[in-house]
Amino acid sequence: MKGLDLNKGKWVKTSLGELAEDISDREDNPAQSRYERFVGLEHFVSGDLKIKQWASTENLVSATKVFKAGDVLFARRNAYLRRASMVDFDGVCSGDAFVLRENHKKIVPGFLAFILNSDKLWDYANANAAGTMSKRVKWRDLANYEFLLPPKDQQARIAELVWAADDVVQKYERLVTSLNRNYISFEKDSFYKSNDLKELRSVVLNLLGGGTPDTKKKEYYTNGVINWITTSTMNTLYVNKGEKLITKKAVENSATKVLEANNLIVGTRVGVGKCCINEVPIAFSQDVTGLVIDKEKTDLQFLVLQILSKDFQDNLISKARGTTIKGVLKEDLLSSKIYLPEKSKQMVIAADLLKIHNLINSYQSHLHHSKLIQKQLINQVFG
Question: Engineering a disulfide at 332: which of 154, 161, 237, 319 sits with its beta carbon 3.0 to 4.6 angstroms away?
Answer without folding.
Answer: 319
